[in-house]
Write a structure and sequence with these properties.
Distance between the termini: 95 Å
Structural class: alpha+beta
Strand content: 25-35%
Number of domains: 2
Radius of gyration: 30 Å
Oligomer: single chain
Largest sheet: 9 strands, mixed
Shape: elongated
Number of helices: 5
Helix content: 10-25%
Length: 429
């Protein structure tokens, strides 16, 4: 009986097929490992939150442990005819070093964040116009980031809380009566007072949760006005010093008119700055009351004319948020008053480096819009705040001083955050 000979061609084909199968198996394994360890092609996640369609194109889980650049792609679609407010939240599950840049669709930088963050969330509040889409890229610095957590996006448009509501929700109102005659060096929190429009809630002392952010600029919350608007003061100061009023006195007018904010050179400068820096937020910044003081008293002891505010603050030790009708200016931007300085924790000629309006970077006086006196040379002075935090001896309206703009945010603003320096209230129009 003869043995059947093997076909050498069939053997070669089987060998080639076997090699191909092994190659395919190895390739699939390598691709799986690349996918697993680089996060470059992680499974996409698509979710819907109301009218917001969210596509996490690289998945919503993040784990960065190697020195390799990571770029996470997020695509959003607003399917409604209304503007949507949404948050991009980075949730860290362990203490992390984070160095992150947020890029737009063309990979231009929008904002960045770099810090040791611990176990907490980083929240960015954004808007999306009606029937539109947006793509973001989260770019992590490969040399500085060690992060494990996830990305989540939430439609915040269903949130009806106003800025004032959110502040009151995050703070218990302190019922203790403050000692306004002394500087405040501890955190007294949020207290209640009254102004021209009703109950006003103000922060006092060394508070840590009254930060707000517009664009890349930090502000501090001074108070909730009686009308529900939230009054903010810039945490720092404008780069250039300015006089309160360098305008010439109109012929026949009383010198005290130089203390008027409306029509002053400072108002003109601040409106110019506002139009350049805050025009995009105009819909959420209200015209509101700014209190000046054109009432002056001539005493028997001196020919100087001291303002009624001087009498109220320096002599009677009785500051007030209420402004008489003839001393009201209404504007979108102004300055803080000396009364608000006292309520916040400042004092008269007593240094205080432990309340929220003290800023060590401010090395010279900054102005209030409260008049001080008209001196014997018929020159008007305004109350000022010294570099050490207390109210000073007054600044001539023609002298240059640091300027910390004040604005009032209305209830139409969308706000997210807790008010700390690392998680400030983020304001969007």
């Amino acid at each position: 009986m003869h043995k059947q000979k093997k076909n050498p061609i069939s053997t070669k084909i089987l060998l080639i097929i076997a090699i191909l199968l092994v190659f395919i198996a190895v390739t699939i394994t390598i691709l799986h490992l690349v996918k697993k360890y680089t996060n470059k092609e992680a499974d996409g996640v698509s979710l819907t939150d109301g009218n917001l369609i969210i596509n996490y194109n690289n998945g919503n889980k993040i784990k960065i442990t190697k020195n390799k650049e990571y770029l996470y792609d997020i695509h959003l679609t607003n399917s409604s005819n209304e503007k949507i407010y949404y948050t991009i939240t980075l949730h860290s599950t362990k203490s992390s070093n984070l160095d992150l840049v947020l890029l737009d669709n063309e990979q231009n930088e929008i904002e960045s964040y770099s810090d040791f963050i611990g176990e907490k969330d980083i929240v960015l509040l954004k808007t999306l116009e009606p029937s539109s889409s947006a793509t973001y890229y989260l770019k992590f610095n490969p040399n500085k980031t060690r992060f494990e957590g996830e990305i989540s996006i939430h439609n915040e448009s269903v949130n009806s809380l106003s800025f004032a509501d959110l502040i009151l929700l995050n703070n218990n109102v302190n019922k203790e009566k403050p000692k306004l005659s002394e500087p405040s060096t501890k955190d007294e929190g949020l207290l209640a007072g009254s102004d021209n429009d009703g109950v006003s809630y103000y922060f006092r002392g060394n508070v840590k949760n009254n930060y707000a952010k517009i664009n890349d600029t930090l502000y501090r919350i001074v108070r909730i006005n009686g009308n529900g608007n939230v009054r903010l003061i810039m945490d720092n100061a404008l780069p250039n010093k300015l006089p309160y009023n360098s305008n010439s006195l109109i012929e026949g007018a009383d010198t005290k008119t130089l203390a008027t904010y409306e029509g002053s050179s400072l108002e003109s400068e601040l409106i110019g700055w506002y139009n350049q820096e805050l025009a995009g937020y105009d819909s959420v910044i209200d015209y509101d009351i700014f209190c000046t003081d054109l009432d002056f008293i001539i005493t028997d002891e001196t020919i100087n004319r001291y303002s009624v505010s001087y009498e109220r603050i320096y002599n009677e030790k009785s500051p007030s948020f209420t402004c008489s009708e003839n001393n009201i200016s209404r504007s979108k931007i102004g300055l803080i008053t000396a009364d608000e300085i006292i309520y916040a924790g400042g004092n008269i000629n007593k240094a205080n480096k432990s309340y929220y309006l003290y800023k060590k970077e401010l090395s010279s006086n900054y102005l209030t819009m409260t008049s001080y006196y008209i001196n014997s040379n018929n020159n008007v002075t305004m109350m000022n705040v010294k570099p050490t935090g207390e109210l000073g001896e007054g600044i001539l309206v023609t002298n240059n001083s640091l300027i910390r703009p004040v604005i009032n945010i209305n209830s139409r603003a969308k706000v997210k955050g807790t008010g700390t320096d690392i998680d400030p209230y983020i304001i969007v129009p």
